[in-house]
Amino acid sequence: MSTEPVSAAPPPAEPEALPSAPTRRTFIAATTAVGGVAVAGGVIGGSVLVGSEDAAAAVAPVSRVSLTVNGTRRTVTVDNRTSLLDLLREHLDLSGAKKGCNAGACGACTVLVDGRRVNSCLTLAVRLEGAEVTTIEGLADGDRLHPLQQAFIDEDAFQCGYCTPGQIMSGVGCIKEGHADTPEEIREWMSGNICRCGCYVKIVRAVEQTAGK
Amino acid sequence: MSPQPQAAVGAPLSRVDGRLKVTGKALYAAEHDVDGVLHAVLVDASIGRGRITSLDTGAAEKHPGVLRVIHHRNAPKLPYLDNPGSNNPEGRRLRVFQDDKVLFHGQPVAVVVATTLEAAQHGASLVKVGYDAQKPSTDLAEAQPDEPTKYARGDAEAGLRKAAVRLDLDYRMARNHQNPMEPHATIARWNGDRLTVWDKTQWVVGTQTELSTVFDLPMKSVRVISPFVGGGFGSGLRCWPHTVVAALAARELKRPVKLVLSRRQMYFGTGFRPSYDYRVRLGSDRRGRLAAMVHEMDAETSSYEKFEEAIMLAGQMFYSTPNVSQEYRKVPLDVNTPIWMRGPGFASASFAIESAMDELANRLGVDPIELRLRNEPPEDESNGLPWSTRRLRECYSVGAREFGWDRRNPEPRSTRDGDWLVGLGMAAAVYDPGRFPAQARVRLDADGTAVAEAATIDMGPGTYTSQTQVAADALGLTMRNVTFRLGDSLYPPTPPHGGSMTMTVVGSAVLDGCNKVRGRAIQLAVEDEESPLYGIKAEDVVVRNGRLHVQDDPARGETYQRLLTRNKLTHLEAVGAYAGAPEPARHSYFSYGAVFTEVGVDATLGLVRVRRMLGVYDVGRIVSPKLADSQALGGMVGGIGQALLEHTVTDHRDGRIVNASLADYLVPVNADIRDLKAIYLEGEDPDADPLGVKGIGEVVQVGVAAAVANAVHNATGRRIRELPITAEALI
Known about the structure:
The complex is a heterodimer.
Chain A: E1 2-3, H1 24-34, E2 43-44, E3 47-48, E4 62-69, E5 72-79, H2 84-91, E6 110-113, E7 116-119, E8 132-134, H3 147-155, H4 164-176, H5 183-189, H6 200-211
Parallel strand pairs in A: 4-8
Antiparallel strand pairs in A: 1-5, 2-3, 4-5, 6-7, 6-8
Chain B: H1 18-22, E1 38-44, E2 50-56, H2 58-62, E3 66-71, E4 90-91, E5 101-102, E6 108-114, H3 117-126, E7 128-133, E8 149-153, H4 156-162, E9 165-173, E10 185-191, E11 194-199, H5 204-214, E12 222-225, H6 241-253, E13 257-260, H7 263-269, E14 276-284, E15 290-302, E16 305-306, H8 313-317, E17 323-333, H9 346-364, H10 368-374, H11 392-403, E18 416-417, E19 420-431, E20 438-445, E21 450-453, H12 463-475, E22 482-485, H13 502-526, E23 541-544, E24 547-550, E25 553-559, H14 560-566, E26 571-578, E27 591-602, E28 608-618, H15 625-644, E29 650-651, E30 656-657, E31 675-680, H16 704-716, E32 722-723, H17 727-730
Parallel strand pairs in B: 1-13, 9-32, 11-12, 15-17, 21-22, 28-31
Antiparallel strand pairs in B: 1-6, 2-5, 2-7, 3-6, 4-16, 8-17, 9-14, 10-11, 10-13, 14-15, 18-19, 19-27, 20-21, 20-26, 23-24, 24-25, 27-28, 29-30
Helix pairs in contact in B: 9-16, 12-13, 15-16
């Protein structure tokens, strides 16, 4: 994965030899190519691959995407298979969004995309051209915590802390959506975020208080 | 405790690491930035038992970005020395990639290492493994148990025969998985013969010893780092095969390697709470005084290790019973080895025993609390020792009052709220906290700040915060001027972060270290002619806000800073220690609780909702009330999961776990949890340890499942003896 500036993008390489029957992956790769994105090769993970055993790595379906992350415009060359979550965690050094299940079942990866809460593990990075992404790292105003972050500390709405960034991002979304009027409503609309330490009572309290401000 | 004024201990403080956690800056195992790291993804066996007959790695190796596929045909032989004193159960631990045998569905059979995560994941899907598959044995009810572990006092069979009232009850409990939110992960890096791993673990020393024995390295050549752990509930109590795989791959590739288990792999790559078949036969007189209890327990374990837990103790010590006999049979199955899960042993035993007590109360028409009071033992009948503190009566009375127990109609199925049948239930809770030796290093710097460090973990209970509270008071510093460090095997050794012992053993070591450092500073002052404290008796000096002064004359004193600077000392340092449980034991020492709950059961649909729950606990001194409260509520949520939702389902045809995901293995979500409340009885247990604490984290899950089952009975008249309690069972 390379982040801008990409001064010397290698020339497009030979496409992968396609097997006779299309596999799910080649289907995705082909579809992506139809979508008009650039396919580059030779550079993966930001490191130029060397050595004979790495020769096979010369081709991987990649695309360039420009998106805004926490207010900063980033243009990245991503493997087409990369989720937004893996883009954040493995390539942009933003490990605040957590991988709990990688299947959209736990909510630990919740971030805001264009103001709406999404499971970043189920969101392919390549489809985010022009998107605005806000992660837990972009929530505070400098040293001043977002009121919901402060409420989580004050109410002790977490223990291990692993689901916390997702809970907070989801809570911000929940309040913005207008789904935080009563504890019952908050419980329902925050149920996409699992907390295995069992801090739900205090999560509801933190969201309720923040919504009331 | 020390003679120091208590300011931080007992105060409802927020977490010292709270800011890191709410800003996403706390780094968990897979998140450490290690230069040049490669990604590894495991390939796991798709049969439940048999042999690997073929391995086709060609397509994977050709996949762009894949650097290597390691498996039993090309992996080096690993020493796998014995590891006594570890948490590895008796047996022969799984040795990764050392032979062609498959012992359980999901066993790692290969690992794909690639430059990117995407390539490693895809590469792993391209590895083709051929098997000679045999039908696995995975059904607890069908398999042959090992020789039982037995316990007996009196003559239980004779006691049963003579008893006026007899019950014969069979309880079943599903397998549960810890499912911490953070998947297990390891980053391994070699520097010559030295290995560093960033690992999700509840015991850095345990991971260190395992890696040192697997690779035959000196202990000092292995460093384990784990500053933040995203939940454990027991899953991190031993070092699992994937950690060895990460280290092996890093050595083979000569690059750092990161290996993160998928959520699916968590179900067979780490342990679980074993399923149980627990039969209770009990006999009592007409007033409910127990005469005899017979416990027969069958629990699953793996074919290669004999997993054990403290399932027997509750049946020996909890109720006064002259005649007891127990048989604990481990049933070897073609599954991976279990591991202790929150409230290990006790959370399972209590479902059977506390349900049985409720059944006896119903049979006799005695209030369940009154029945328990009639069977309170004056001493521990398993060993004849006096209790240290056992304030169960108070737990019952406070709980009954606060919960409104008197509003319970003892007649089942007598209270309705619209579609909902409403019932109240209660159960008692007990846990035997561990007390093993621990150390901590404490350093007081000349600038008046201090650092304490120990190789312990904070998986969520708040170790960072509570240890800082202990250190701050014992040194006479503010919280802000004390830093507690943990999660590194370079720090003084501690036992596992589990078994409800961290506050007791690490806290006592921190307290000891701080007392030594403060004592040295005071000694220095009273012997220093230039100190205002010169000539004062050491025991008359206390320290507050970093200033040493005469206890009865606060004006007379000076700061640590002045004292150390004048004496040209950069710092004072000491290693504190906790020696472990006293030998021979003088007291019998347990954490206790009583759980009360109100459930609603939809009369048509059989849905169960926990409407409210109250736990009252006797766990000694509470160091950190705000965090202790969270821990108790969390234990209740875990117990509600155990009671109503959690059930790992195995397809016995091939040993596959069919619900290995968080969409299919149900855990409580926010909408499942309403009104939870915890009360800690004030006081301390002076016989327990220097801090007077007994341990919270385990006992708070014990008893919850039985309380729910008892409330369901009160609501519906239906006695469900199998966990989880599902709608199907109630329709």
